[in-house]
Write a structure and sequence with these properties.
By secondary structure, chain A is low in regular secondary structure. Chain A is 0% helix and 0% strand. The chains are: A little secondary structure, B alpha+beta.
């Protein structure tokens, strides 16, 4: 059995879809 | 019989243009349906889920944060021209849940639920130790300041008698010791003229209502108090402006400018 050497999987930066951008300021 | 394919929702980004369009339609909806307080503007989209809807369309399930602006809900000023209440003025945040239907490119609100809450006193004090905080609207000083300010405004507005609609904001200012209030009024749709009013409760609102908004400060001083009030009457085409010379004799009505039809009451920011 040919074992694929473990490839370090670096998760691509998860685009945080939410919460979205703050348009003014956070209370 | 197996159920139809489970209705799965999709989760676009909160800053997707389509999501933002749905959120802006929802904010317009609350501003056009609120009956008191101030207009709110979109500050942040917290969550979004988009459900397919049979037979057509999609339903956006949104959670958004809003911020209070300085425009009263009755003020015809476009939201884009309303400034956001700043933190040092004791900002107010709204938390809203919406369901917005998108069909044929149009957005319509199916459900809306919003709660608003002022920023904490600690946050305001951290930014501005000496800034006044929001006061309870039924505080005796607040009620008195509104009463004095509206009376002063009525005394100056030739012949019309405006009635209090809502105290929308108040602050007890430590130095100089004073009370700052903002309130909305309706009128002059009453059948009373200011000079004849003995018991305002007996004035009946007439059909042609007009709305307006005042900002006033009642300053305590030795042996009395001073009131400064600025009011705007909202006309259908937006607030008009006329100033009344505080020194003028209130009994002598201010003639409206020749180009203004006498029928339209042109009243605006007036300092008494």
């Amino acid at each position: 059995t040919v074992v694929q050497p473990g490839i370090a999987v670096v998760p691509d930066p998860v685009l945080r879809p939410c919460p979205g951008r703050i348009r003014y300021f956070k209370v | 019989v197996p159920l139809g394919p489970a209705l799965a929702y999709r989760q676009p980004n909160c800053d997707d243009p389509e999501t933002e369009q749905a959120a802006l339609a929802a904010v317009d909806y609350i501003n056009s349906h609120m009956l008191q307080g101030y207009k709110h503007t979109l500050n942040q989209i917290d969550k979004v889920k988009v459900w397919p809807r049979r037979p057509m369309g999609e339903v956006f399930e949104l959670e958004i944060d809003t911020l209070e602006t300085t425009c009263h809900v009755l003020d015809p000023t476009p939201l884009a021209n309303c400034s956001v209440r700043q933190l040092v003025e004791h900002a107010v945040e709204g938390d809203c849940d919406f369901r917005v239907l998108k069909q044929d490119g149009q957005f319509s609100v199916l459900f809306a639920k919003c709660d608003s809450s002022p920023d904490s006193a600690e946050d305001v004090r951290r930014l501005c130790p000496g800034c006044p905080l929001l006061a309870p609207l039924n505080d005796t000083k607040v009620v008195h300041a509104v009463d004095v300010a509206l009376t002063a405004f009525n005394a100056q507005s030739n012949g019309s008698y405006f009635r209090l609609l809502e105290v929308s904001r108040a602050q007890l200012v430590p130095l100089p010791p004073s009370t700052y209030v903002e309130f909305a009024f309706a009128g002059p749709a009453t059948d009373c003229a200011a000079k004849d009013v003995t018991d305002p409760a007996k004035c009946n609102l007439l059909a042609e209502k007009q709305y307006g908004f005042c900002k006033a400060t009642l300053t305590e001083k030795i042996g009395g108090e001073d009131v400064a009030v600025t009011c705007t009457v909202f006309q259908t085409q937006g607030p008009d402006v006329v100033t009344v010379d505080p020194g003028a004799d209130p009994a002598v009505p201010v003639p409206s400018p020749p180009d203004v039809p006498v029928a339209s009451l042109v009243v605006g920011p007036m300092v008494v």
